[in-house]
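stage 2 :: seqdesign
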């Protein structure tokens, strides 16, 4: 079945050099991403043809009619300037779309790169004659003449730069710092504002993820034993000031997260894979072990040992070994973020009590990525962000085909026909209720296969800012902080100047959007 989808460009759309954006640019971009990105190649594999069908029109032909999100996926294509990439660069040599470069690329958006220092900073300047400035979706946005982003290798150094006033905006990822690190003079004097913004636009699974390509992790009971050994309650208390909650869904924080027992349409979806999934999917609501106190933690470790023994391991000379081969169970936690190290060290102590040999290896980003591409790891900290409308990305996350594709996000190596079938149900859903049911069914099957040990999450984005900015009275519901997109510089908020209250001093949301632009 062939389904054509058309994309029509705005006639005024143009690149920063003044040349128009053309269908040739769209086709060039589509093939470039498909050829050079394993993830996008999987995304676009159902697009069997792309062609120019008008002066400003491109038609994409799909191989089926059941993939209702595919037109949206194609519509998210980042368009690149064909004429720029096919010309010679500043060095006089031809540019290559498949190679890295330090030459600022030609763009078409509201900002262009003004200057940069590799690995340190990048500065964007607003384009004075930006073609899309008067589009309704751009009204009130892009209110700063210049945006400067500074990068820090160390979070502590970055925070000190913020406290000194060298940075305007800071996102706080440390629960400890949020609880005890904001007692500096600028905050007590009201010059710095702390604010949390609810995260409504995404769900998340962050977890200790197993590489089940390795035989020692093949048995789900082994993976479940690792969950019983993880004492989240102590980690949350000692390191996170009790601020976090345990993740219990691959779609945590959204209406797509499964809970309780499957019912109604979700149960109908699961009936199609009943013989291929753990029976707990139908009989037991998923749960994470709880270790409140030393006695509960010890009980969890005893249960973990039972699971390990059921899967063929025994303890010999204080070491956990495979009863059949005599090989010791040893695991390596591969990290590239030192912030996880204290939690993993506490986790290591519990695993060592079970006789498991544990190594914690912290590497730089390049080495980390190379090892991931080669599937050269035992356990990593994996994180998967889920939209409110899941689709083809699920194949890249959990699909059998992606398990063998270097660069995919199926780090775990899942090859499960039931998971594949449920992913297709998610992708082909015809209405929201069907999508919700299929996603919850997929969530439940992933959970009960124990592919990960779920970690923790926080429902808000913690931010701190110097009080120099105004914002709309009504903020985007799904935009989190939406900084700097809809914010503006407000002279009235400088020290010594009377402050304004956006709730009472703005006549309406529209006034904020049109009069506070800082232009």
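stage 2 :: out
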């Amino acid at each position: 079945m062939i389904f054509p989808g058309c994309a029509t460009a705005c006639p005024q759309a143009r690149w920063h050099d003044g040349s128009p954006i053309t269908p040739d640019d769209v086709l060039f971009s589509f093939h470039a991403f498909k050829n050079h990105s394993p993830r996008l190649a999987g995304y676009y594999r159902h697009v069997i043809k792309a062609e120019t069908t008008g002066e400003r029109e491109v038609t994409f032909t799909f191989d089926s009619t059941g993939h209702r999100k595919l037109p949206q996926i194609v519509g998210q294509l980042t368009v690149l300037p064909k004429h720029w990439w096919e010309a010679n660069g500043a060095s006089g040599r031809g540019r290559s779309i498949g190679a890295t470069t330090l030459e600022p690329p030609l763009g078409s958006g509201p900002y262009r790169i003004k200057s940069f220092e590799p690995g340190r900073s990048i500065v964007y300047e607003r384009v004075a004659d930006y073609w899309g400035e008067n589009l309704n979706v751009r009204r009130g946005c892009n209110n700063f003449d210049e945006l400067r982003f500074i990068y820090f290798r160390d979070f502590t150094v970055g925070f000190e730069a913020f406290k000194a006033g060298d940075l305007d905006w800071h996102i706080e990822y440390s629960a400890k710092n949020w609880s005890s690190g904001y007692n500096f003079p600028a905050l007590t004097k009201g010059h710095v504002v702390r604010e949390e913004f609810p995260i409504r636009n995404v769900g998340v699974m962050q977890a200790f993820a197993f590489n089940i390509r390795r035989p020692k992790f093949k048995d789900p009971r082994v993976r479940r034993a690792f969950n019983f050994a993880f004492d989240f309650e102590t980690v949350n208390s000692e390191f996170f000031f009790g601020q976090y909650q345990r993740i219990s869904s691959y779609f945590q924080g959204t209406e797509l997260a499964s809970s309780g027992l499957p019912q109604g349409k979700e149960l109908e979806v699961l009936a199609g894979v009943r013989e291929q999934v753990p029976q707990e999917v139908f009989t037991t609501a998923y749960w994470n072990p709880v270790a409140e106190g030393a006695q509960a933690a010890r009980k969890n470790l005893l249960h973990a040992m039972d699971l390990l023994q059921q899967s063929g391991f025994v303890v010999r000379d204080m070491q956990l070994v495979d009863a059949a081969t005599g090989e010791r169970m040893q695991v390596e936690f591969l990290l590239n973020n030192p912030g996880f190290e204290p939690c993993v060290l506490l986790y290591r102590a519990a695993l060592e009590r079970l006789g498991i040999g544990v190594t914690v290896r912290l590497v730089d980003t390049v080495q980390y990525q190379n090892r991931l591409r080669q599937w050269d790891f035992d356990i990593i900290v994996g994180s998967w962000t889920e939209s409110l409308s899941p689709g083809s990305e699920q194949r890249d996350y959990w699909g059998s085909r992606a398990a063998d594709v270097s660069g995919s996000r199926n780090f775990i190596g899942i090859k499960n026909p039931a998971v594949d079938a449920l992913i297709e149900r998610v992708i082909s859903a015809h209405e929201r209720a069907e999508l919700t049911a299929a996603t919850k069914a997929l969530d439940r099957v992933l959970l009960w296969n124990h592919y990960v040990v779920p970690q923790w999450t926080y429902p808000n984005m913690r931010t701190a800012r110097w009080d120099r900015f105004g914002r709309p009275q009504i903020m985007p519901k799904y935009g989190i902080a939406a900084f700097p997109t809809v914010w503006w510089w407000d002279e009235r908020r400088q020290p010594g100047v009377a402050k304004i209250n956006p709730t009472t001093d703005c006549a309406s949301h529209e006034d904020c959007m049109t009069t506070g632009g800082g232009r």
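stage 3 :: structure notes
- Residues 154 and 515 are 38 Å apart (CA to CA).
- Residues 111-200+459-515 form a domain with the D-Maltodextrin-Binding Protein; domain 2 fold (CATH 3.40.190.10).
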